[in-house]
Amino acid sequence: MSRDYHSKTASVTAATYRAYIVGFFLSVDCTLVAYALVVAHLNTGHQWPSDQVLLPIIIFLALAQFAVQLVYFLHLGHETSPRWKLLVFGFTTLIVAILVFGSLWIMNNLNYHQPPGGTDSYIIKDEGIHK
Amino acid sequence: MSELKTNLPASRDESKTVFGFWVYLMTDCVLFASLFATFAVLRGNTFGGPSGADLFSLPFVLGETLLLLTSSFTMGLAVLATQRGLKTQVLAWLAVTVFLGAAFLTMELTEFTNLVREGNSWVRSGFLSSFFTLVGTHGLHIATGLLWIGVMAAQVYRRGLGHATLRRLTLLSMFWHFLDLIWIFIFTIVYLMGAVQG
User: Fold this and answer.
1) Would you place residue A2 in the very low, low, confident or very high pLDDT band (cuts 50, 70, 90)?
2) What is the pLDDT of residue B5?
């Protein structure tokens, strides 16, 4: 029985080594591809790849790397049910989305309702700054 | 033999501790999310000062990123060595992790020092205030993590590997991996998108 258990543990450990190596190389790839695309964009004078293509790609690469590290390094989704870790993670994602997109939405809307250059001129006057 | 001891009896307790620490990490996620939201709102408010595209050096930041990513990987190797009961290997990987993490922190502090010296400190504009707050909070976490790794290494060295050590090392590795997760978004949103959008 002991030997049986031992060989099982050994195979689990081997699998985890592989997981860390795969996770590491996928993460490096995501980082380097995103970096190379941005450098290409800057070297061609913001022409190729264009803003509209580049931004979604680098955001996608960041999210992909995030997912890779969650699974391979933090072992998310490896637990048996009930999956409390996954549940808490899902709830946090919801809060984070509300916090970030809510802030951007509200602040952009406020900007829209300001007279052009309004805030700047108020601050400059109140703080006695001469621009 | 040590694997039998570390894996079987305390697994229930251990999973509770790990879950508790996971919940802490998720609340830290919310902290960083609020700092990211602040940065996203203020990124254009340079008040006539320099923008991200003017200030940041991309190769430098790529170097920082690869250092931190590699340190996250070596931390994982330290945990795997702990599970196998290989004390010397654990200490070696922890040493490599501390070295890479310290190199990352040194680069970050160099960047901060240069910015402040050139007159682009946090008082310069809303953009720079939010930049220093976001990246500085991450740096503070890294500094805490380095201290924790040092204490952990001393514990492994003096007491050897046991239940308690494996549990603490697991939590430490989660903390360190989490900091690399946050850095992915700092790298992408602050530096890469900053360079693209100006």
Assistant:
1) very low
2) 44
Helix (H, G, I), strand (E, B) or coil at B56: coil
* Partner residue facing A55 (CB), from B62, B83, B193: B193
Residue B32, Cβ neighbours under 10 Å: how many? Answer: 20
- What are the phi and psi torsion angles at A125 (to 5°)? -70, -50
As a whole number of angstroms, the distance between CA A125 and CA A127 comes to 6
And the tokens for B136? Answer: 């500085």
What's the predicted TM-score (pTM) here?
A: 0.88
- Contact, B65 vs B57, CB < 8 A? no
Q: Cβ of A38: how many Cβ atoms within 10 Å?
A: 24
φ, ψ for residue B84 (rounded to 5)?
-90, -5
Q: Tell whether B38 is within 8 A of chain A (Cβ).
A: yes
Residue contact A13–B177, C-beta within 8 A: no
Give φ, ψ of B38 to 5 degrees: -60, -45
Digit-coded pLDDT (tens) for A30-72: 999 999 999 999 999 888 889 899 999 999 999 999 999 999 9
How many C-beta neighbours within 10 Å does residue B41 have? 19
For residues A51 and B196, is the Cβ–Cβ distance under 8 A?
A: yes
**Token match 């602050």: residue?**
B190
Tell me the two tokens of residue A55. Answer: 């931004």
